[in-house]
Each structure stands twice: as C-alpha cells, then as structure tokens.
Design goal:
Order of helices and strands: HHHHHHEHEHEEEEHE
Shape: rod-shaped
Number of strands: 7
Radius of gyration: 45 Å
CATH architecture of the largest domain: Roll
Structural class: alpha+beta
Length: 321
C-alpha cells in the first residue's frame, strides 16, 4: 500500500480519536459543569441557611443571656421575698406569743392595787425599812412569780377561784414560749445566751415612759412590747435566770440624782465583748463573785459605753429563790 495513503489513514484515525476524545471531554465538562452549578447552588443555599441559622443562634444567645439575667434577678427577688417572709413569720409568731389575756393582766393589776405600783405601799412594815430595797425586792418577786418560784397566797387564791388556774403557771408557760422563740440551746455558752436574749429584747421591746412609776411583771412587758428601765430589767433578769445565769435587778443613781434600773449577772466575763463590773457585791446582799452590769435596753455589743460608767449602784436584789 502506498505510504502516503497509510499516513493519511493514520491521520484520519488520530483525528477521529481526538475528535471522539474531544466530544467525550466536552460531554464530561458539561456534566461536571452541571454538577458544579448544582453544587454551587446547593452551597449558596447552605450558606444562606448557615447565615440564617447564625442569625437565629445570635438571637437565641441574646435571648438566653437576657433570660439568664432575668432568672438571676428573679432568684434575687425570690430570696429577698423568702427572707422577708421568714422575718414576717418570726414577727407574727412573736406577736402571737407575746400576747397575754385579760385574766392574767387582771392579776397583776390586783397585785399592784394591794401592794402599790412598786410594791412599797406598806414598805415601812417590811423587815427592811429601806424604801428602795423594798422596791427592788418587789421587782425581783415579780420576776420570780413568772418563773413559778414565788407568789402572794391570798391574791393567788382569789385568782384561782375566779379563773380556775394559777397565774404563775400561765406566766411560766409564756416565759418558756418566748425562750423557745429566742432559740436558747443547751450547748450555748453563757455569753451566747446573754447575746441572744438581749438581741431579742432589743428587737421586739421598746422603751416607753410611764405617767407614774409602775413595775410590770415579765409577761406584761412582753405583752405590751414596751416598758421603762425597771420593766426591762425585771424581764431580762427573769429570762437570764431561767436559762441558768445568776442574775439580779439593780437600782442605780448618777451625779445628777437621776435614777435608773439595770441587770447584774454573776459571771466571769462576756467573752469578746466589753463590760463594766463590780468585783464584789456582798455588801449589797448579793452572792460573792464578780457581777457584770448589763443595760437590758441594748445588745451585748454596747455594754462597754461610757454611758453605763456614770451609774452607781445603791440597791440590788438577786433572783436566788
């Protein structure tokens, strides 16, 4: 065969193959391009979805942050409401507990009618002719009455005939209801007991003047939620004594001939708290030992003020029955 013909045939074959390959390449390109366009469209769709989801996420994240802040604020408000509720619950319990009935109040009115407002109507008949000593003894006897440790037989008999129970029993129950509210524990130190009682009195009992000087029994001062210095002293001395703290009521005078009543406790110290004291008061009829002066109208933290230092003791009586 002619060599030229062979070359021509080979060229034709090569061109045919290249044409076939080119056609196949174009077809593959078309397919690939179609797939690319589809993927590009899908990618753009996904990108739009991603942007939308990112926007949604950002909105939700902002909402979550806002809700978290609102939750914290609500929790703070809730805790404040719980705290206020607990305080109100305690105040309500105290208000309910401190009340005394007319029957018991009538006993003390009858008692003061018979013995005088400070128990000194017939003080000259007392074995101790000192007016102030008779008076402070009566203050202590009021405290001891509410602790179920002393009473006036004829007046008590009249009360029992009218009411059908003993006044000192009713008062004693009230005293222990109050001590339960104060939450005195058997494991409390003497200082803890003093701190708790003074804090309770400072919170719930307020000072009020009297038109004439009348000594109130402990449960009366609790019922009125008020009293003057001698009423505070009678109440606090009774509470101290009932939780095992040897106590006394003291009458004091200052350089201006002003009179005041405070409590004395026979203890070694008040722990970390400051105080004024007498090393010995046996000459005043009290047991031997150190007697710390306590102002019953304030807390244990305020017992070392110079205001207390101005007072000199001139009469005292101990709850030693």
């Amino acid at each position: 065969m002619d060599k030229k013909i062979v070359i021509i045939m080979l060229l034709i074959i090569v061109i045919s193959v290249e044409s076939l390959l080119l056609v196949q390449t174009y077809e593959y390109y078309d397919q690939t391009n179609t797939q690319y366009q589809a993927l590009s469209t899908q990618y753009q769709t996904l990108l739009n979805e991603k942007t939308s989801l990112q926007n949604s996420y950002n909105a939700l994240d902002t909402l979550h942050h806002d809700l978290s802040q609102e939750k914290q604020e609500l929790e703070t408000d809730y805790n404040a409401l719980v705290y206020d509720y607990n305080l109100l619950s305690v105040d309500y319990a105290v208000e309910t507990c401190l009340r005394i009935g007319n029957s018991l109040e009538s006993y003390y009115d009858y008692l003061r009618q018979e013995l005088g407002p400070t128990g000194t109507e017939y003080w000259w008949q007392s074995p101790d002719p000192n007016y102030w000593q008779t008076s402070v003894d009566f203050a202590v006897n009021l405290a001891l009455h509410d602790l179920r440790r002393t009473y006036w037989p004829s007046i008590e008999a009249d009360y029992y005939d009218a009411i059908g129970e003993y006044s000192y029993d009713t008062a004693f129950v009230k005293i222990h209801e109050v001590l339960d509210l104060i939450d005195i524990n058997i494991s409390d130190s003497i200082t803890d007991k003093i701190r708790k009682i003074l804090s309770f009195i400072d919170r719930y009992i307020q000072y009020e003047l009297e038109v004439n000087d009348v000594f109130l029994a402990p449960v009366e001062t609790l019922g009125y939620k008020s009293g003057d210095c001698d009423d505070f002293s009678i109440l606090v001395a009774a509470l101290f004594d009932e939780v095992g703290i040897e106590s006394a009521v003291g009458f004091f005078v200052n350089a201006y001939d002003q009179y005041h009543a405070m409590v004395l406790v026979n203890v070694n110290d008040l722990g970390e708290y400051g105080y004024y004291y007498y090393e010995d008061l046996t000459q005043s009829g009290l047991e031997s030992g150190q007697w710390i002066i306590l102002e019953p109208q304030t807390t244990i933290e305020n017992q070392a003020t110079s205001w207390i230092e101005q007072w000199d003791l001139f009469a005292a009586s101990e709850l030693d029955v």
